[in-house]
Amino acid sequence: MAFFPSSLENLIDKFASLPGVGKKSAQRLAFHMLSLPDQEADAFADAITRAKHSVHFCSVCQNFTEDEICGICASERRDHSVICVVSEPRDVLSIERGREYNGTYHVLHGVLSPMSHIGPDDIKIKELLNRVAEGEVEEVIMATNPDTEGEATALYISRLLKPFNIKVTRLAYGIPVGSNLEFADDATLNRAIEGRTEM
Question: Distance between CA atoms of 28 and 40, rounded to whole angstroms?
Fold first, then answer.
């Protein structure tokens, strides 16, 4: 027996299908939506519909944009000879927050994951190779996550890039600022020692 009307149950199910949203959170979100004034609820629904119809992949870097080319790729102030390869669009935001990197990006929209049946043709690797083949790129920075799938993806792509004779680098890993060595795992400590820099 359903506790709520079918339309409300459907709304809860839609929220629960989002990543990281459990059943209770989905219920809270659905109840909140019902408590909104009609104008706000309509604006929320319209924002989803508008974003879905107007946002697409940048023809160069595969990040989200409303234009043919995103603002980063269109900028003449960016260094177009360097590409930072990331797994997801949110990773671009993380790197941009640091305000240090001035190159361009390439968004894979996933990582290689045989367990999830995600292979090279399921992510944007071919588009990256096409960009590098144009000859303007001098360095590709692999910035996928330091987990098994991220490492496998970085290694796979670096092998594909070998024939192009460009510099392929990997983000350095180490001890987070403000943490203690005693809490760092062995792999992190080893990476920190391998990636040490001169002072």
Answer: 17
Please give the radius of gyration of the chain, using alpha carbons only, rounded to the nearest integer. 21
Q: Are 166 and 128 in contact (CB under 8 A)?
A: no
Domain extents for the chain?
6-54, 75-170
Does the global pTM surpass 0.90? Answer: no
With 90 as the cut, is the pLDDT of residue 177 above it? no
Helix (H) or strand (E) holding 19: none
**Distances 52 to 55, 64, 122, 187 between C-alpha atoms, Å:** 6, 11, 21, 40
Residue 64: φ, ψ to 5°: -75, 140
The SS3 call for residue 152 is: helix
CB 58 within 8 A of CB 70: yes
Least confident of 27-36, 45-54, 142-151: 142-151
Count the neighbouring beta carbons within 10 Å of the beta carbon of residue 199: 3
**Fold topology of 6-54:** Helicase, Ruva Protein; domain 3 (1.10.8)
Residue type, 47: A
For 75-170, CATH gives 3.40.1360.10
Helix, coil or strand: residue 56: strand
DSSP character for 28? H
